[in-house]
Amino acid sequence: MDVATTPSEALQQAINIAGSQSAFARLVGVTQPSVWTWIRRSKPLPAEHVLKVEAATGVSRHDLRPDLYPREPGQLEGLRA
After folding, report:
1. What pTM, to 2 d.p., does this model score?
2. Distance CA 4, CA 62 (A)
3. Are 61 and 41 in contact (CB under 8 A)?
4. What is the helix (H) or strand (E) element at residue 50, kind and residue range?
5. What are the tens digits of pLDDT across the range 26-62?
6. Alpha carbon distance 18, 57 (integer Å)
7. Torsion over CA of 26, 12, 44 and 27, rounded to 10 degrees?
8. CA 73 to CA 32: how far, in whole Å?
9. 50, 68 in Cβ contact below 8 A?
10. Cα separation of 16 and 14, whole Å?
11. Interhelix angle for 21-28 vs 50-57, to 10°?
């Protein structure tokens, strides 16, 4: 099982599952350069895209944006939904 330990790694994992930056951009409704900027500048996935990305790729919202979706006490860290 792949384990994403940081939001940047989780974002890259979701992009890999989508197949490419372009495919990921189409999934969330942005341009490929926007996706490139998020990666290059280590920006978090914008909040409005988190649930759509989780549903489409299986990468947990808790990994993508732990600041918005913290894990409940006792929930295992780094697991995909």
Report:
1. 0.83
2. 10
3. no
4. helix 50-57
5. 999 999 999 999 999 999 999 999 999 999 999 999 9
6. 7
7. 10
8. 36
9. yes
10. 5
11. 120
**Most distant CA atoms of the chain, gap in Å:** 38
At 70, list the tokens: 């913290």
Quick one: CA torsion of 3, 24, 37, 12, rounded to 10 degrees?
10
Angle between helices 32-40 and 21-28 (to 10 degrees): 110
pLDDT in tens, 5-21: 799 999 999 999 999 99
What are 66's two structure tokens?
Answer: 């732990």
Residue 78 to residue 81: CA distance in whole angstroms: 10
